[in-house]
Write a structure and sequence with these properties.
By secondary structure, this protein is of the alpha/beta class. About 25% of the residues lie in helices and about 20% in strands. The strands form two sheets. The protein has an eight-stranded mixed β-sheet, covered by helices on one side. A six-stranded mixed β-sheet has the order 3-2-1-12-13-14. Helix 8 links the parallel strand 6 and strand 7. The protein is globular.
Length: about 425
């Protein structure tokens, strides 16, 4: 009996196409039934439920069953009706194209990605989940290469050229395997282009904006770290427009592969030789706090426009956590503006067996108040302030997020961090 390792390239290609087409067909039917183009009547839709997951490290010789335990648990809970959800949002690292770290790599670069997707989609627990629930996904670094960040072609033209080749192949496979059934940026017949991979969708009436915080980010140096952006201008403008045009009474889900909040402890290391009161080191972080221009700009935008019920969902740190943040303004321009609350929910890894690659709660700041300036307001004296607190949930698994509207018209969020044992729960009001 042949295995995928002994098949010829043409045979592997036929199998990959068949698996992908089957996945596309099942997922497209589910998406068609779950995506609603018009705004729902809030009174008739007082609750939303979806599942959040990410970071599925591939199985080795000895951990085939435990590697896909989270998918198996989710498939079982969907099958029994214990979970009824509008969709599964995968936040990135669905595959690890760099899992072998250069050892035993395929001869052809494209096979790094193609084989990884084939192996994932051949797993029964994965197929069982995708058979029962629509999947919305975005890629992160391991769909390309570990901690991918653009290289400045002016400084390293050869390395930049090699990186662009790898990126092009990786995004082509992501589009083929993960976005083959949509959602499409501009309608059913639109082509998904690598330069515009972010998208918006209504998941059974719940507005969702899926950001690309990996390939759209800018390169950084020690002199540009406070100006570099985690998303390009086009995507940033699209996200802001989306936030402004949604029904203000509805929850708004912003999917970000990189964690939005909390910030990392490593960016706040003290520097005795610095005359600055606050010694931040953005280059030490791969997430939003590593791109403070983007983080501060978006926080200020939400505050300036009093945008309510915003929830950021993410995955990358391999540690579950939930933060509630309050943004207010301390300058003279803040008269009449009320503080705005946001939430940041970070799902655990579906499977991440290597402790050295997993964040621990000491890596993230549990409680913090920090002041910042908005872009274009450099002469203002720290007019914005963000205060947040965080709860942590260790272990592997997925997250079930339920949003319900109570009799007083208040939205409540209930997050179940599913585990084989000792699942954790986070509950809070959105405002």
């Amino acid at each position: 009996m042949k295995t995928t390792e002994t098949l010829s390239p043409s045979e592997r290609s036929r199998i990959a196409k068949a698996v992908s087409q089957r996945f596309r067909s099942q997922n497209e039917q589910a998406l068609d039934s779950s995506i609603v183009k018009s705004q729902p009547d809030v009174q008739s839709k007082p609750a939303f439920t979806f599942v959040l997951g990410g970071c599925q490290y591939p199985a080795g010789l000895l951990d085939v069953e435990p590697a896909y335990d989270a998918y198996a648990r989710l498939a079982n809970r969907l099958e029994t009706g214990e979970i009824t959800a509008a969709g599964l949002i995968l936040t990135g690292d669905q595959i690890y194209a760099d899992a072998t770290a250069g050892l035993f790599d395929p001869t052809q670069l494209v096979d790094h990605y193609r084989r990884s997707y084939e192996r994932l989609l051949q797993k029964k627990p994965v197929r069982e989940v995708m058979r029962q629930i629509p999947v919305i996904s975005m890629f992160d670094d391991h769909e390309i290469s570990d901690n991918y960040e653009p290289i400045n072609s002016s400084f390293h033209p050869d390395k930049s050229c090699q990186q662009q080749e790898r990126l092009g192949l990786a995004l082509k496979q992501y589009i083929y395997y993960q976005r083959g059934s949509g959602p499409y940026p501009d309608g059913k017949t639109a082509e998904i282009k690598p330069e515009k991979l972010w998208y918006e969708v209504n998941l059974s009436g719940l507005p969702v904006f899926v950001t690309n915080t990996r390939s759209d980010r800018q390169w950084r140096t020690a002199t540009s770290e406070n100006k570099a952006r985690i998303m390009g201008a086009g995507q940033t403008d699209a996200l802001k427009h989306w936030l402004l045009t949604q029904d203000e009474s509805l929850p708004k889900i912003v999917v970000s592969p990189s964690i939005f909040l909390p910030r990392h402890t490593r960016i706040l290391q003290s520097n005795k030789n610095s005359n600055s009161e606050h010694n931040d080191y953005p280059l030490l972080s791969d997430s939003w706090d590593g791109y403070p221009a983007s983080l501060y700009d978006l926080l200020a935008f939400i505050s300036d426009n009093s945008i309510l019920n915003v929830i950021f969902v993410s995955g990358d740190e391999h540690l579950g956590c939930a933060s509630k943040a309050v943004i207010d303004q301390t300058g003279s321009a803040s008269v009449g503006l009320k503080p705005v609350s946001i939430h940041s929910i970070h799902t655990s890894a579906l499977y991440a067996p290597y402790p050295f690659a997993n964040a621990c709660k000491e890596d993230l700041i549990k409680r913090e108040t920090f002041s910042f300036k908005n872009i274009g307001m450099e002469n203002s004296e720290n007019p914005y302030r963000c205060t947040y607190s965080t709860e942590f949930y260790s272990g592997f698994g997925f997250t079930v997020i339920k949003l319900t509207k109570n009799s007083r018209g208040e939205w409540e969020i209930n997050c179940e961090f599913d585990r084989e044992k000792n699942s954790g729960n986070y509950k809070a009001f959105l405002t």
